[in-house]
Amino acid sequence: MKRQIALILLLVAVSLCVQSPYEREYAGLKVPFRANLNEAEKISVYPSEDSLNNLMLNPQIINVTIYFFPNDTENAYYSLAAFELSNKLEVIYKANYGSLKKITGIPIENNTSVIISKFAPGILFLGPSKANETSVSVNETVGMVTIRAANLTFVDNKYNDLDLAVDKFLMVLMGFK
Questions:
Q1: How many domains does the structure of the chain reveal?
Q2: Model-level pTM greater than 0.85?
Q3: Rounded CA gap, 16 and 30, in Å?
Q4: Dihedral of alpha carbons 74, 50, 53, 118, sign
């Protein structure tokens, strides 16, 4: 009987220590994510995670703009991803700098309508109509992050490649490994 009680207590203790693959703690808050973070961790960041941190965690950032090419099939996915990204970016900026940054979203027809800099970086969403891989790429020189999703089919009816790439972007900024 004592053995069974000890085993039950051990199982309860272990289950309390196991972290959900859809949630992490950041700045004292439990932050939910759309994608399985174990899978999101596998998404590549080019040229490096450091370049993403250098661009997006610059304390002199004034605003961030999320860009996307309008597409009837992909717009709903962009909206959801932009909502998730902007809410969590606000948490990151508030935790790191004590203030919020202006975050907006703008549909674009071509790259010439993009206005970006180190102090006003852009985040460009590319869905399967324009992306052939799922990744995050950073161009520090011009101030642009491109989040690519090769497939928008849901995995386990929960998340897709865009969710994985957005969550990888956020994981890097939040310092999750």
A1: 1
A2: yes
A3: 14
A4: negative
